[in-house]
Amino acid sequence: MEGTQMHTHIVHVHPEPHSYNGALTRAAKTSLEHLGGTVTTSDLYGSGFDPVERARHYADRVQPDRFAPLAEQRHAWKTQTMPKDLVTEIGDLERADLVILQFPLWWHGPPAILKGWMDRVFVSGGIYTSRMRYGTGYFKGKRAILSVTTGAPRAAFGPGSRGGDFETMLWPVQYSLHYVGFSVLPPFISYGVQGHGYSYEEQSSLEARLRENLAVWASQLSKLEDVDPLRFPDWPDWNEDGSAIR
Amino acid sequence: MEGTQMHTHIVHVHPEPHSYNGALTRAAKTSLEHLGGTVTTSDLYGSGFDPVERARHYADRVQPDRFAPLAEQRHAWKTQTMPKDLVTEIGDLERADLVILQFPLWWHGPPAILKGWMDRVFVSGGIYTSRMRYGTGYFKGKRAILSVTTGAPRAAFGPGSRGGDFETMLWPVQYSLHYVGFSVLPPFISYGVQGHGYSYEEQSSLEARLRENLAVWASQLSKLEDVDPLRFPDWPDWNEDGSAIR
């Protein structure tokens, strides 16, 4: 699935196109196309994606008097009355061999627009059912990777450190990708992404470091075949009631 | 701060007023008022809160050609040109002794509308600065507690279990509350909250269990003085660069 065979879809999340997140997405696209692959992008801010799961997304309600999100999701999938923006987003994922989620860390997690992309796109009864999950998930065979920016320096992260531990902070997103069947590769973290309040000398060294980081990301994307996915619990690890087998 | 002195603010998050989340919010309000306290509610779905941090919230831009969220937040706070919905939300928190976040667990975290409430309400330069954080945070002296519903049964949760570990899943929200100075009390989790696909007998026992759970929540709110807050790392635990002191 490398080179010419590989199709990558980038879910791009930042309100400012000229941000460093924008540069990371462009670097990924250039690198992957250079390797002979194809790349599409879903720019959630650009398309005005609505991250709020709510009644008005459903034209044909199974329960018009009471809004139960999962019931409406299942009904919309079954009757092919899915919200149009979700049909687009799901099609993008279906065509991809690799999915990159590019976003800044805001309040120890993804921006709301990306959280709500999961709330809405991972449709009950369509993208998952009680048996079609985890190792038997809808997107089985596809890989996903998070590329995350943060303003604080590397030293501030880790268990007990001020900024928190990335393994914990990214767990909800990564486990959700695992839930719908993706093999999740270790994340790429860009530290110290900020441009304000620095002297000229500091600013220059910051820019040099961030430019170097773009090259690291591009290079890393050319070697994904060598990378083992993260290990998450799966069906063989659980009892029937979902508890962990000790 | 108990009884007549205590003012509680509930941030209520569910798209359906007749949901079990709605019942939990009403049970909390009744219980706290019965104890002599006062209660206000911010219904994020009801008020149409926009969880997406974006340029259009800022009428008076410090950088009109490039949208840097934190720079605009600091500028808006300093020039008192804050978005009106945030002035309301922040005022509600300032007046509260106790803040309850009531929400369903969606994709191993809060719904997007609550994630974005944090993205927008916790304003850089106003609600926090590099020194006004954690133990020296803006909301120091106030308490916060999460009340969370989930469809899966209790057995499915815990380290390595199918549904995930609540300590990990709630860490991003709870640590963010700690970041802005709240003492965070252990969460109240309502398991097995669902009403579809059951036989009459199962449905009856489900309803009895959920009714009983409302009483447990009401009772728990009357005994918060006895509860120790969760312990999170704080200034004395870190080196100057934010790394944990070993």
Decide which structural class fits the backbone of chain A: alpha/beta
Query: How many distinct beta strands of chain A?
Result: 5
Q: Helix segment count of chain A?
A: 6
Assembly type of the chains comes to: homodimer
DSSP helix fraction of chain A: 25-40%
Average pLDDT rating of chain A: 95
Largest sheet strand order of chain A: 2-1-3-4-5
Question: Main interface pair?
Answer: A-B, 61 and 61 residues
Task: Report on the biggest sheet of chain A.
Answer: 5 strands, parallel
How far the N terminus sits from the C terminus of chain A, by CA atoms, comes to: 37 Å
Give the overall shape of chain A: globular
Radius of gyration of chain A: 19 Å
Spans of at least 5 consecutive residues with low confidence of chain A: none
- The run of helices and strands of chain A is EHEHHEHEHEH
Strand content of chain A: 5-15%
Structural summary, described in words:
2 copies of one chain form a homodimer. With 246 residues, chain A is α/β, with parallel strands linked by helices. Chain A has helices spanning 20-34, 69-78, 84-95, 112-121, 166-179, 200-221, and strands spanning 7-12, 38-43, 98-104, 143-149, 183-190. In chain A, strands 2-1-3-4-5 form a 5-stranded parallel sheet, with helices on both faces.
